[in-house]
Amino acid sequence: MKAGIVGATGYGGIELFRILNVHPQIDDITLYSSSQAGEYFEDIYPQMQRGQSHILADVEPDKMKEDLDVVFLATPAGVSIDLTPQLQGGKAKVIDLSGDLRLKDQSLYKQWYKKEPAGEAVLGAAVYGLPEWNKENIQQADVIANPGCFPTAALLGVGPIIKERLASPSSLIIDAKSGVSGAGKNPNLITHFAHAQENFQIYKVNQHQHIPEIEQQLQQWDEDSQPVTFSTHLVPMTKGIMATIYLQLNEEMTVEKLQSLYKSYYEKEPFVRVREMGSFPCTKDVYGSNFCDIGITLDPRTNRVTIVSVIDNLMKGAASQAVQNMNLLFQADERAGLLTLPVYP
Amino acid sequence: MKAGIVGATGYGGIELFRILNVHPQIDDITLYSSSQAGEYFEDIYPQMQRGQSHILADVEPDKMKEDLDVVFLATPAGVSIDLTPQLQGGKAKVIDLSGDLRLKDQSLYKQWYKKEPAGEAVLGAAVYGLPEWNKENIQQADVIANPGCFPTAALLGVGPIIKERLASPSSLIIDAKSGVSGAGKNPNLITHFAHAQENFQIYKVNQHQHIPEIEQQLQQWDEDSQPVTFSTHLVPMTKGIMATIYLQLNEEMTVEKLQSLYKSYYEKEPFVRVREMGSFPCTKDVYGSNFCDIGITLDPRTNRVTIVSVIDNLMKGAASQAVQNMNLLFQADERAGLLTLPVYP
Amino acid sequence: MKAGIVGATGYGGIELFRILNVHPQIDDITLYSSSQAGEYFEDIYPQMQRGQSHILADVEPDKMKEDLDVVFLATPAGVSIDLTPQLQGGKAKVIDLSGDLRLKDQSLYKQWYKKEPAGEAVLGAAVYGLPEWNKENIQQADVIANPGCFPTAALLGVGPIIKERLASPSSLIIDAKSGVSGAGKNPNLITHFAHAQENFQIYKVNQHQHIPEIEQQLQQWDEDSQPVTFSTHLVPMTKGIMATIYLQLNEEMTVEKLQSLYKSYYEKEPFVRVREMGSFPCTKDVYGSNFCDIGITLDPRTNRVTIVSVIDNLMKGAASQAVQNMNLLFQADERAGLLTLPVYP
Amino acid sequence: MKAGIVGATGYGGIELFRILNVHPQIDDITLYSSSQAGEYFEDIYPQMQRGQSHILADVEPDKMKEDLDVVFLATPAGVSIDLTPQLQGGKAKVIDLSGDLRLKDQSLYKQWYKKEPAGEAVLGAAVYGLPEWNKENIQQADVIANPGCFPTAALLGVGPIIKERLASPSSLIIDAKSGVSGAGKNPNLITHFAHAQENFQIYKVNQHQHIPEIEQQLQQWDEDSQPVTFSTHLVPMTKGIMATIYLQLNEEMTVEKLQSLYKSYYEKEPFVRVREMGSFPCTKDVYGSNFCDIGITLDPRTNRVTIVSVIDNLMKGAASQAVQNMNLLFQADERAGLLTLPVYP
């Protein structure tokens, strides 16, 4: 199978290259870059050198849609709005890692992304690529809107409890923490090492563009669901997301019951691991892997549930989830190329 | 003035030594250690060498209470329960940095600390040393229960809004994050660099001993206050605490009004800085200082308030707040010895 | 093929498990631990859970040497001295990751490790497992002494120039820097996060036990080689080694010539990458991989060569190099199971 | 006394502001910025807010040289070449923290800084501000060339041994390591957190502009001194420099004698601390202070000396050394405003 990666020199692109490089079904990888076309990828990233070098090709949609089996768009917001329609209708399937195709409601995109939204046709074709909750649709799709990093952690964490309507949707608070790579590769004062290290920062309070993405899926599960409170923090580490999630239960229940609900929801999912009672994951537990680890508890004093959900933001939060979607698109083993255990220590 | 520090080789003790060393009213510092008595402090911490060395003295309460003007107890839980009564009744005032004297209700201490509580007499004498909310009592006291690091950040953050009964007490969620030094100096697997770095961990979910301390003060402000949800996380940094605090408002109000409420509550406080609207502090903004910086916002979509409160856990969260209390005990300028601005970068 | 890992819960053991878990020739992994036998590996390391759990087995050499094809000893200094002879003579090949079998001269082991050395028989059987310089002997061996992390970086860096006798051996200075995981899993004050972070430390100046290991190999290349100066520093990062190496050239030469010498020495080696002129690797360039990356320059002002050699201390410096040796022992593709590119960012 | 800081928003400028803010002899601080004049310093750095705000003033040399007692130039290379002459001849003394006035030989500046050098007059007036070795000249000066961070660590480390001609100058190798703040405040790919964290990098091999500065002072001590080998590395920490220094002794001597040589050279210096035998400083030992800590050893196997010298690069390597120079210029206590002990942990 032939894969292409557009935006290969960004953090998402590099991670995709690393995974596809050892993926059993991928024979050939072409890397594309509009800003650095003509340069060698391995001159920019000498650590990626193994055997033959990869020249960064110009983005030529007409050619790509016939030559490639799958195209990954690891591009900044706004690019895939135009590019995806040009890639449709040929052999290639498209997996978009940006936020451009995730929101079905164009006005929400406009409001939260401050850009013109994608057209209805491409939005209609795009399937939200959260495999644990949308597997059948993904398998039929031609275009995948790969979920955002925060929504992945948050939604896998709240899915069962919201779906079962056990908690009050208006009580939902998601306090999320991310490593600095989530801010992308372009350097600025916030991501300068001397500023970010030995520092813990909050940003985009109540204004993060992942809020409507989370709310859209919540409404799929429960049409009564309400606006959520969602905060994002920058942790002095490179990779990893933890979402600490708070929910008020509708009625009294035991933590054992909650635990077994989660276990049963995810028991067939190869990449979601529900922890034993009293055990909570840390972000390093999933570092460099496609896992989402979840811990749950319940405070009888407040009848409030605390759910802890962790992922590697560049893996399950971006590149490896995209490859999981690719595996589903092509009816391969969902786990192909994604078997590596987390790095430790 | 003569000061003594018991538990001088722990993190709180070192920080106290550093501050008192350049405090204008302190002429003489004696360091005490039960486990390392007889050794020189500067042999253990060569970086603290300046001029004459300090021998670690045995803890002799009878002598200390007459020789010293003030004794700081920077000791593990359980020590000051017995030691404080032995230090009372002489010249010396006592400032206890441990959690032993903070909870007025002995059964709560027993429940959360899993130890036998202090006696009623000493608990009756101990004044909770949160200067911004208890200044007059502190000035009259002989024994100070210096607040915990998390309660300091949390209470300064929620004080005005709870006092004014603007929000539902049962909606209060405090999602707190701390640097690793909060776990103390004894090495273990959790604080091992190779485990803690590039990692974000949650711990003691719903079980942290600072919960009853927070609730006790909330009840001072509002007797209808309820059990709170309080989570603690370990950030891969040495120092700093951020408390991200969520509250449901009782009625609609503007963020401008909230902002000016906080400004007016703290305008005379030299160590609490309320940020301008739309600005939130990060932990580095208070690194190495006695400041608590606070940012506030309000989401009109949910009518929920988000308050961000940051401190240096070893300074305003321990040692420098203890010195602020000392200044108040002796009617000195509250700011004496605490004028240093935060380290940056 | 069946593999066993003794000392599975240490850092080297975990890394071995992670690699062997996806190694195409390994069907079965048994984990051994003398201190934690009977526990489940996945209870201790829940992040390693995938499918069936692994019980930690007792170390039973008689059984192991017949049941297993290969045994990895990821044990503290002193253990394999006795254990290796008990494992010899059966089906299993032994790869020892400790320093016990590396020094041929028993008196040197005694002097630098402060322990009784291994017997002559096992030392005679043990082949030094630095594949790039000892491949043929490794392929014939039954027992491998897997090199130390620092010697791996240092020797791959100086090999060509020493072998060709282009520099004065007595001028050799190796200034080495390592991530904290090199100090092992047992927590202590030096590796406490609050001490090690935002800190750069030197340790064991002129006293590191890797010094005689380096010198032994230097003498293989040049019998006139002299005692070296070797310093080790602790970097506030988890993994990675850089050796900055200084050598005085015997005669004037060009950097181009040096560069092509290195290129030609290593051109057939899949895991050593010599950088283009003027380019130097950083430790992240090899993070999570089996690569050793090397950069070289020459200062015409001093006629001194600077060589920069980087590895991942737990991979090429321990576990993945052990697997590379295993591949050679069993005449597999040297690269089997080791194709993953470095993690970035 | 009135002080001015030009370039107040850079890392050196902030550190200067922090120190002068609590300096007993400074009554008034004016901050200057050519790029951000008119803005409030505290709007850019809210963490520096205490009392009245500071507007960033335009740089007006004519006015400054009469209004101020001392002007600190914390500006990028090239600025003080023109600015210093305009500030000369009035009341104000000038302390330049850039490299512009350090090299007496104009051709060396041209060669290493790739810029046009300062004029002879100002170079003639500028005194090299390394107080421990040049105190009397500093006390008479009107213009101070404040030393570079690496030269400060390196020269304090090698001074006594070079001055006494105990070692071969051509054998001198300085392997230096610095925190990321040394690269300044402007963000780039090298200092991006996601690149710099969990990474150890070498840069400017044999090409650092501090090389001629070191060599200039070496020649003051020993006119036979030779070109040195000097390497610089980037450590994943914000602040701190360690120079590991290697020298071949001319004749055999004991480490005790070396030790007492260093002790006697620096015994009257308040900011250089020579460690006891067998003890070596780490960078955290001087964090946030004006100290330079030095450890020395000697390997009898090679007759080579290893000297370890650590400073805080923004303090003794920049701002606090500049204040030390100011104290000397104005015949104040050399230690005024610089008494704070290092931050720990």
From TrEMBL, chains A, B, C, D:
According to its UniProt record, in which pathway does this protein act? Answer: Amino-acid biosynthesis; L-arginine biosynthesis; N(2)-acetyl-L-ornithine from L-glutamate: step 3/4
Query: Where along the sequence do coiled-coil regions lie?
Result: none
Q: Taking every annotated instance into account, which residue ranges of this chain make up the domain Semialdehyde dehydrogenase NAD-binding?
A: 2-141
Q: SMART domains, from UniProt? A: Semialdhyde_dh
Q: Which Pfam families match?
A: Semialdhyde_dh, Semialdhyde_dhC_1
The reaction(s) catalysed by this protein are: N-acetyl-L-glutamate 5-semialdehyde + phosphate + NADP(+) = N-acetyl-L-glutamyl 5-phosphate + NADPH + H(+)
| BP term (GO), one | L-arginine biosynthetic process
* Keyword set, alphabetical order: Amino-acid biosynthesis, Arginine biosynthesis, Cytoplasm, NADP, Oxidoreductase
| The organism's place on the tree of life at top rank | Bacteria
Q: Which GO terms label this protein's molecular function in UniProt?
A: N-acetyl-gamma-glutamyl-phosphate reductase activity; NAD binding; NADP+ binding
UniProt keyword Transferase present: no
**Protein name according to UniProt:** N-acetyl-gamma-glutamyl-phosphate reductase
Which organism does this record belong to? Halobacillus litoralis
